[in-house]
Structures are given as C-alpha cells and as structure tokens.
Amino acid sequence: MMKTLRQIVCILLLFASKAHAVEVYQTSAAFVEEAFSGGKPLAKAVWLTGDLKARVASVLGHAYRDLRVRYWALDGRTVWILEEVGKVEPITLGLVVKHGQIEAVKVLTYRESRGWEIRFPVFMNQYRGAQVDSNAKLDRKIDGISGATLSVRATT
Predict the structure, then answer these.
(1) What is the model's pTM?
(2) Which residues have a Cβ under 8 Å from the Cβ of 106 and sit 6 or more positions away?
(3) 1, 25, 82, 147: most buried by Cβ count inside 10 Å?
(4) Cα–Cα distance for residue pair 29/9, rounded to 1 Å
(5) CA 85, 64, 107 angle in degrees (round to 5)?
(6) Cβ 22 vs Cβ 109: under 8 Å
(7) Which residues pair with residue 95 across a beta bridge?
(8) Which residues lie across from 101 on neighbouring strands?
C-alpha cells in the first residue's frame, strides 16, 4: 500500500512539474473594444495563401499556424489578435496599428511557465511607434528580458 502511494505521489509530482498556468489578462473582445473606444470597427480577415503565406513564413521562420488572420479596422486603425508559440505554448497578443505604426502591443493570454514578464508595459512600450522596414523587420531593436528570450522572440 505504501509503495503504491509513493508511486502515485511521484507520478503526480512529475505531471505537476510540467504544468503551467494559463493567464488570461484580457479577452480579445475587450481588447478590440478598448482599442476602438466603443466605435464599431469592421471585422475582416487576411487569408494566408500563396505569396503572402511564403512571406509570413519567411518573417516568422516557420509557417503561421492558421490559414486566416482576423483583424478589425476603423478610421485608419487596425487591431490584430495573433498567436505565436513561445517555448511550447502559444502566446495570444493584441496589436493596434495606425497608419503603419504600432500604437500598442498587449499580452492577452499567456500559457508558458516562464517569460511572463513580457506582459509588463515597460517591455511592451518598446514597440510603440515601431514600423516594419523594407526587410520585413521592425525598424528598431527590442531589448530582451533575461529568462524570457523565447517569449520576447515570439512577441517580436
């Protein structure tokens, strides 16, 4: 009996060490509403096919996990909800872009066990005003966070 109990405890500890919390900081719907201050944006989608699919894969270094990316648009502002894998799990990000410049980036849902520090404004504010250059890269260097390298890379 005692041996069986020890085995069960060991198995539970093994699974617990691999567990991670899902932290939802803001829902996608709330982020979209906040970005448009109650305005009524038009929901749209970009289909990742052909040339665009290849360009996106080139920028990310891998194929994007979805075939379509939804976004919302109103008065020159677009809001995008994107997911990119950090180390193992996807990070859900909300981005606000106006006239080609990033206005805001926010972690909406974080699923990894490490790297959650990227959600703080001191990190995210680095993206404000950034644009994509002719090489499909951000026009500025983003300072990383020790211990959150993969989360920083996924966000960028």
Answers:
(1) 0.82
(2) 25, 26, 31, 93, 94, 95, 119, 124
(3) 82
(4) 41
(5) 40
(6) yes
(7) 80, 105
(8) 98
